[in-house]
């Protein structure tokens, strides 16, 4: 069960782009993404992520986050409220996942994208 833990981010405050696609990652621990304070592009596509709702802190994205790629995972739900609060987010790629319902917060977020 490959996972990403907080210690991965120690000493990485200047990382702006992080591509962890195609790594069979199934879990991401609390605070990992938020610790990357300059992160603008995050690619977690083509992994085995299935549930990111257990840690709502995951989507407290850094202020510069503008692109998040989560396509080709096993996601069925996300903490939409936190995604909607990511004001600089311009790309959110969720293709080829297992979503059944899209929350009204997502609709509101989409309407705000320029």
From TrEMBL:
Pfam family, one: LRR_8
Domain of life (superkingdom): Eukaryota
InterPro entries: Leu-rich_rpt (IPR001611), LRR_dom_sf (IPR032675)
Keyword Repeat applies: yes
UniProt keyword annotations, A-Z: Leucine-rich repeat, Repeat
UniProt cross-references to SUPFAM superfamilies, sorted A to Z: L domain-like
Protein name as it appears in the record: Uncharacterized protein
Organism, as annotated: Cryptolaemus montrouzieri
